[in-house]
Structure formats: structure tokens, C-alpha cells
Specification:
Protein name: Phosphate ABC transporter substrate-binding protein (PhoT family)
Largest sheet: 10 strands, mixed
CATH architecture of the largest domain: 3-Layer(aba) Sandwich
Keywords: Signal
Pfam families: PBP_like_2
Order of helices and strands: HEHEHEHEEHEHEHEHHEEEHEHHEH
Helix content: 40-55%
Domain PBP: 36-274
Radius of gyration: 24 Å
Mean pLDDT: 87
CATH superfamily of the largest domain: Periplasmic binding protein-like II
Strand content: 15-25%
Organism: Flavobacterium weaverense
CATH topology of the largest domain: D-Maltodextrin-Binding Protein, domain 2
Length: 307
Amino acid sequence: MKNFGKLSYFAVLILIVIITACNQKNKSKNQETVIKGSATIYVDETLAPIIEDQVVIFENNYDANIKLVSKSEAETLNSLFNEKASIAILTRNLTAEELKIFQQRKINPKVTPIATDAIAFISRNTAKDSIIALKDVISFMQGKDVANIKGLVFDNLNSSTVRYMKELAVVSAVPQKGVFSFKTNDEVIKYVSENDNMIGVVGVNWLSQPSAATEKNIQNVTILRVVGLADDKSYLPSQNDIAEKKYPLARDLYIINCQGYSGLGMGFASFVAGDIGQRIILKSGLLPIRMPGRKITIKTKSINDEK
């Protein structure tokens, strides 16, 4: 009977601990609303500059605290799958197979398209040619020799830029020769600015919104015009060429919200997709998913009439 009493005591104690933990979790959710509370957002490292700008303005407007965690695309996705993260910002939507993972958990991810950016090719500004053919880059990714490319430089072998180029070249792995990888886009830009005949592959946001340390290195690189596969004309990753669907390396950006309740994930996505957020994107050099409206004041009286 004594042992039974001890077991009952421990069973009650464990039950109290579980109930307390559940109450704390529910309390935390109740304290968080679409414009209030704290949340962690994982972001593809190639998109970090523009999302940092969005977070600053969002926090200034609302009683919210958002922690940004910048990781490679593969790491960001894995954080969603293993439930380390519930909000992520990616350069692609979830696949049907990935959606099944969340559906099995009774979660229906809220996917919000927010902008279109692009992958840019850069070279040292001492290079003679400022134009590159996409077919040459694809050939290099397939392991073929290309006269005007000594090497391709990526931020991370798990990054969205590597995944994008692998899909474009229809290869399962990057060639063992001539491909260099670093940890960040900053390091890619620095390396290309110091080495001839190297082609850097970066998110265009890092060029339009460089950090203070990177700005000096950007002065020593050239953003290459790209000849696509459809014709022999070359285009820059500019807002205009992206908007007219001329630049061949454009990609859409998405906020993936797997919170499962009305929290900051929903509020932040609405903010970025709304008027203020889209104006921030437009100013950054990327293409908004919807063009912010402009207010025009029409005067019915001239200055002379008022006199």
C-alpha cells in the first residue's frame, strides 16, 4: 500500500507538470496576436536584407518582437519539417510531398506570395565582357568546359541559388571541379571582387541593398547582363526587365506560415503583402507582387483663379 501511495503521488505530480506546461503553452499563444507578441522567423539567407527592412518597420508599427534566423534554403526547410520553426520565408513554394508532411500533422500552411526577385551573375569589374549566356552557365554546371568561365561561386551548397541552378541544368549534383562555395553572399561578392574570371551567383537583393562591409566590394564587381535561352538578347535583373518577364532568372518569394493559429506569422505576412510592405519591396529594387497605389491630387482651380 505504501508503494501504491508513492506511485499515486508521483502520478499526480507528473499530471500537474503536464497541465502546467500546456497552460503555459496556451497562455503564450493567447498573448500572441497578429500584431502583438514574439515570434521567430527563419529566412533564406539570400533574402535577408529585404526581410530585415520589413521586420524593422513592422516592429516600429506594432507591439511585436520578431527574431530573424538567416539560414540556407535546406536548413530553413528542415527547421519547418522538424518543428523547430513555424514561419519561414523561401524563394519557392512547398511541393506536394512537403505539404503532405504538414497535412499529416493537421496543419494547413498559409502561403503568401510577397515579391519577385532574381538570381544575378557577377564578375570582377576588370573583366572585358559584361554579358554572359545562360547556356554557358548551364554547360558549366553539367561539368563541361566553358572558355570564359573559370569557376562558379555560390554562397552555400545547400542554398536556393544552388538548387535553382541544379534544376535548370538538370543535374543532381554540382561538378566537383570549378565550383566554389562560401557561407554567405557577402563572402561570394568579396571573393569575386578579388579574382578574375570567376562568376558569382547571388540573390540580387544583396546587390541592391548591400551591407556597409560589402558596399566597398560591390564597387569592384559588375552585374552581368544575361542572354536567356529564348533569344539572343541580354537583360539585367532590373525591376523593369523582371516585370516584363524578360530576365531569365527571376523567382517568386513566399512566406510559409505553419503556426496553425492567428499569430504574428499571419500578421507579418499580411503586412509584407500589404501597401507598406510592398512599398518597401519596390524601394529595395525587387518587384512587388502587387504595385502599391499612388495618390494623385487634382486641383480644379489654378493659382491665378485663387488670386
